[in-house]
């Protein structure tokens, strides 16, 4: 256990010194700063005003940016260390493969989630200073959604990293996974539904396997509990889960998916040739 936390600490220190972490932090901090600068807390959209409106916009932007940042920075973990010859030294140290692998995951999760949380916390503190009402329920739930999505794509990234033999292949695969989940999968399902090849219930159920679609729908449910904007798909979702049930599903499913991918990555890593 001590070696696991030591590995996590070393990964955190290494990440904090990396250029990508500085850019990553500036992106999410800059988004909040720009939203405040443009007076988004003073606008009203669909009944949302103040910090609620800012959080809704922030999480929609984070949905596109966070996964690709997590994937690109994570896929270098195993593949990059393999190319650098780190494992040759690892085998000579009293560090187990499980401690190294899971320590990497813990350390990387801290570094990818910390800037996102600090940006949201900064928005809350600024609102308190300005006397703007803070929607604590929305803040807590949105924080949970971002934490779940971060863990989900961290697990996917570690799985890709263990399967790829080079960082170039790993980064290319990560980009294709992100693009497929963000755009291609929904377009394919939409085309199948239009052609009437599958029932809408089946198409919606398949769509909800996509963690980004789950995240997007959960974000919409915060200001549209009946999901009217989704049209007939809303009836399928509400019949399957109910309004409260889907909110729980949106938190639990990405965590389970990320954990399964991380476990599959660990099993692949343990059985592979390290050098």
Average pLDDT works out at 77
**Overall shape:** globular
What strand line-up does the widest sheet have? 1-2
CA-CA gap between termini: 25 Å
Rg (CA only): 20 Å
- % residues in beta strands: under 5%
- Number of helical segments with 4 or more residues: 12
User: Could you give the order of the helices and strands?
Assistant: HHEEHHHHHHHHHH
Number of domains: 1
Helix content: over 70%
Oligomer: single chain
Structural class, by secondary structure, is mainly alpha
Described by strand count, sense and barrel closure, the largest sheet is: 2 strands, antiparallel
Uncertain regions: pLDDT < 50 for 5+ in a row?
39-49
In total, the number of strands is 2
Description:
This protein is mainly alpha-helical. The protein has one domain (2-271). 81% of the residues lie in helices and 1% in strands. Strands 1-2 form a two-stranded antiparallel sheet. Strand 1 (44-45) and strand 2 form a beta hairpin. Helix 1 (2-17) crosses helix 6 (97-130), helix 2 runs antiparallel to helix 3 (51-74) and helix 3 runs antiparallel to helix 6 (97-130). The longest helix is centred in the middle third of the chain and has 34 residues, at 97-130. The protein is globular, with a radius of gyration of 20 Å.
Task: Indicate the topology.
Elements: H1 2-17, H2 19-37, E1 44-45, E2 48-49, H3 51-74, H4 76-84, H5 86-90, H6 97-130, H7 136-163, H8 167-195, H9 200-207, H10 211-223, H11 233-240, H12 243-271
Antiparallel strand pairs: 1-2
């Amino acid at each position: 256990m001590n070696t696991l936390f030591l590995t996590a600490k070393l990964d955190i220190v290494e990440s904090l010194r990396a250029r990508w972490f500085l850019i990553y932090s500036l992106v999410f901090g800059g988004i909040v700063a720009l939203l405040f600068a443009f007076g988004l807390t003073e606008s009203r959209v669909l009944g949302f005003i103040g910090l609620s409106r800012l959080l809704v916009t922030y999480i929609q932007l984070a949905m596109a940016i966070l996964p690709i940042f997590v994937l690109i920075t994570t896929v270098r973990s195993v593949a990059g260390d393999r190319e650098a010859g780190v494992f040759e030294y690892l085998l000579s140290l009293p560090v187990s493969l499980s401690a190294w692998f899971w320590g990497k995951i813990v350390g990387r999760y801290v570094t990818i989630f910390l800037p996102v949380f600090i940006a949201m916390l900064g928005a809350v503190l600024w609102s308190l200073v300005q006397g703007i009402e803070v929607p604590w329920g929305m803040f807590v739930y949105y924080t949970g959604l971002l934490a779940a999505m971060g863990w989900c794509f961290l697990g996917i990234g570690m799985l890709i990293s263990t399967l790829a033999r080079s960082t170039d292949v790993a980064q290319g695969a990560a980009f294709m996974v992100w693009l497929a989940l963000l755009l291609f999968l929904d377009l394919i399902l939409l085309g199948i539904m239009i052609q009437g090849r599958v029932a809408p219930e089946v198409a919606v159920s398949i769509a909800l396997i996509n963690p980004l679609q789950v995240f997007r729908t959960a974000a919409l449910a915060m200001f549209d509990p009946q999901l009217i904007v989704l049209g007939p798909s809303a009836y399928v979702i509400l019949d399957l889960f109910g309004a409260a049930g889907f909110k729980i599903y949106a938190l639990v499913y990405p965590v389970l998916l990320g954990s399964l991918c991380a476990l599959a990555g660990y099993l692949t890593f343990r059985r592979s040739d390290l050098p």
